[in-house]
Amino acid sequence: MTRKLGILNKLKNFLKSKLFFYLKSSYKKNLYIHIKKYRSVSESHPYSYEIKKFLEKPKLFKNFKRNKHYMGVVETVTEKEGYEYLKVLESRNDGFLKKALGSVLISDNIGNPLKYFYDGYSIPLSPTTLRYIKVASDLNILFGKKYHNIAEIGAGYGGQTLINDQILDVYSAKLFDLPHVNKLIEKYLNYFLLKGSYKTTFINNEVPTNYDLVLSNYAFSELPKDLQVAYIDKVLKKSKRGYLTMNSGLGGVFSDGKLSAIEILNQLPNVKFLEEYPLTYKYNYIVVWGYENSEKIDKNFKEKKYELNL
Ligand SMILES: C[S@@+](CC[C@H](N)C(=O)[O-])C[C@H]1O[C@@H](n2cnc3c(N)ncnc32)[C@H](O)[C@@H]1O
After folding, report:
1. Taking all residues of the chain, what is their mean pLDDT, rounded to a whole number?
2. From CA 286, how far away is CA 277, in angstroms rounded?
3. Which of 139, 164, 181, 234 for mutating ligand 1's site (highest number of atoms within 8 Å of CB)?
4. CATH number of the domain within which 94 lies
């Protein structure tokens, strides 16, 4: 009897303890889709659980771009980086910045992003949106304006998709993300009237399709190796052109458990590695293939110099 009471008391104390609250709160803060082996960096991050809350509570959706976990994964661009994207766009003179200033940069309020007043501009601008405009401008230099079908891996909330739709000429986009993130993308994009169309999907639902372009900003690179191989077979190899901003493969903490740059080179012949500018992490680079002419690349980008650890 006394032994039973002892155990009950221990259990009571444990339920009141800090350890129990810590375990309970960290358990609640995760939302996993895959078993551990197939989880990406962001699937293992509290970010994933927060998205579920944005979808359940309109008040949280209203400010989702200011959520601290979300700002650690998607809405990451700093004021200074935003300034650097702005300078690149100004220097290009391709009309993209002007077009964006008259459209997507004005209506950029959904999710309440952090915005800054940059010298010479009368409205505050979101640095993350400036990054998406810079990527659209890169795509135009490398491959031109017109796309029949784009595959985008890890589309965040659909920010790049929206900019591509408004500034490039995109007939359709297929967006691959985690199932609950796809719901956020749909909710976000349906606030806007698109010129083209989009569909969200999950890698296991993919029936092999040919694409004009595959695009991925910091997302293909954060998938574990097995998933990267699945995307290579089902999507990357089916795409005539590619633009992947990478934060793994050439060293640094994110490279653990991912394909190395040499493995990517072996899987995707005729790729070029370009420098990311502005550089947002020491080991970042951009993988491209299917570009129209090398002269344009030489004029607008620097080839990434790297050492492969063979
Ligand atoms: C670092 S964020 C980048 C988001 C967006 N591309 C951008 O540049 O703002 C990584 C993205 O990959 C997505 N992701 C995580 N695991 C994934 C998976 N297994 N398949 C597809 N996307 C995934 C995340 O939900 C998130 O949208």
Report:
1. 92
2. 9
3. 181
4. 3.40.50.150
